[in-house]
DNA sequence: GGTTGCATGTAAATGGTTACATGATTGT
DNA sequence: ACAATCATGTAACCATTTACATGCAACC
């Protein structure tokens, strides 16, 4: 069994209790979002199953108009199960990029559109970098979390830097769809 | 429609004809493997569907013991379809790492195992970096491909460098499962 | 008056992976 | 003798995403 949403929930809950909503938020806001993600449609069922299995317990907090807040936390068995799951050897890291796929065919893309594409992606990366650099929500700092945050910063900086210094390779001549002229 | 295996096949075939097997190989060997991937179980059906749709044609080359080599290439309509698919705006890049997930809980992992884990991952990254640095199979160099290769190199270098210089943060004290003592 | 944030959940659709099946040849 | 490379394909299984459903409060 690899590291699925269920295991991720187990892991995050091992740091403290949380609701499904908060787990989702931690992907979006915290420094773990750059290498982990899950949708509500995956989180809620995972939490449900974990409860059935007795690995997490929940405390329901009633609220006015909003649905009840279901605060989950690990049981003793949950902690054990998580500790066990830390033994699996981690699968390969994977980076997927539709953006780079497009750049592969930069010579088929009009110059101005290409520039726009790169500018946007760059803005996107800079935004994510900023999010990591200023940890607005100072998480309980474990050494792991600090390490991860640093790697994220290094990662985004490297890519931004590379794109800034090499985009001219793509934007140089307007190679506007010269290919397959003989089709 | 996002960039699925079908679109990837279309794109790769736009650079020249190939068999399903060769397409798969190009992920493993070439400089595109670090941000694209597909299994045989996805490639062959995609190629089949593309043929049905008249976007690719195939030339069957008979062979002795082996199955026939089916060499696919884009039709005029295939080229048009691909050109069209270059207009979609690329979804976000995604990096997924089970390794970093584990490191998040480095304080729950025995020091020696942790060191082993990091050493392995580092070796893995160095291997991929080498693959990019020496382009043993010199692909038809488009500006896009050179750019992508460079980004891959920058990417791996940054990560390797970061891990080498910061692993001590994780390996410092032996924080061997001190957590949840009060459970 | 519309969007965002809070908060939970379900069900269908998707787009894959994994495992299997086949088989000759070459290398270790 | 065993693994790997070449080469194609099918089918079951799978985890997730996407879209939907609901609804209040606060902000703009």
Overall description:
- The structure is a homodimer of 183-residue chains.
- With 183 residues, chain A is mostly helical.
- Chain A has 2 domains: 5-85, Arc Repressor Mutant, subunit A; 98-182, no CATH class.
- The first copy, chain A, has 8 helices and 3 strands, in the order αααββαβαααα.
- Chain A has helices at residues 5-13, 20-29, 40-52, 76-85, 98-103, 111-133, 143-166, 168-171; strands spanning 56-61, 69-74, 94-96.
- In chain A, strands 1-2 form a two-stranded antiparallel ribbon.
- In chain A, helix 1 packs across helix 3, helix 2 packs across helix 3 and helix 6 (111-133) runs antiparallel to helix 7 (143-166).
- The radius of gyration of chain A is 22 Å and the shape is elongated.
- At the A-B interface, helix 4, strand 3, helix 5, helix 6 and helix 7 of A face helix 4, strand 3, helix 5, helix 6 and helix 7 of B.
- Strand 3 of chain A pairs antiparallel with strand 3 of chain B.
- Chain A binds a DNA duplex (28 and 28 nucleotides) through helix 3.
Q: Give the helix proportion of chain A (percent range).
A: 40-55%
Spatial shape of chain A: elongated
Mean pLDDT over the full residue set of chain A = 91
- Give helix and strand order of chain A, one letter per element, not per position: HHHEEHEHHHH
What proportion of the residues of chain A form beta strands (DSSP E)? Answer: 5-15%
Structural class estimated from helices and strands of chain A: mainly alpha
- Cα(first) to Cα(last) distance of chain A is 49 Å
| Radius of gyration computed on alpha carbons of chain A | 22 Å
Enumerate the spans of chain A where pLDDT stays under 50 for 5 or more consecutive residues: 175-183
Task: List the quaternary state of the chains.
Answer: homodimer
Number of domains of chain A: 2
Number of helices of chain A: 8
The count of DSSP E runs of length 2 or more, i.e. the number of strands of chain A, is 3
Instruction: Output the strand order for the largest sheet of chain A.
Output: 1-2
Main β-sheet description of chain A: 2 strands, antiparallel
| Biggest interface between chains | A-B, 66 and 66 residues
């Amino acid at each position: 069994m690899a590291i699925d949403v269920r295991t991720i929930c187990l892991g995050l809950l091992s740091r403290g209790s949380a609701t499904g909503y908060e787990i989702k938020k931690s992907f979006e806001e915290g420094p773990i979002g750059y290498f982990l993600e899950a949708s509500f449609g995956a989180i809620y069922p995972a939490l449900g199953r974990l409860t059935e299995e007795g690995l997490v317990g929940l405390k329901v907090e009633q609220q006015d108009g909003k649905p009840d807040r279901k605060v989950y936390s690990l049981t003793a068995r949950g902690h054990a199960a998580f500790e066990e799951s830390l033994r699996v050897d981690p699968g390969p890291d994977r980076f997927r990029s539709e953006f780079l796929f497009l750049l592969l065919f930069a010579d088929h893309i009009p110059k101005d559109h290409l520039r726009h594409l790169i500018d946007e992606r760059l803005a996107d990366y800079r935004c994510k970098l900023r999010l990591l650099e200023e940890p607005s929500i100072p998480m309980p700092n474990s050494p792991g979390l600090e390490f991860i945050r640093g790697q994220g910063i290094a990662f985004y900086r490297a890519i931004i830097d590379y794109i800034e210094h090499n985009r001219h390779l793509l934007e140089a001549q307007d190679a506007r769809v010269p290919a397959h002229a003989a089709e």
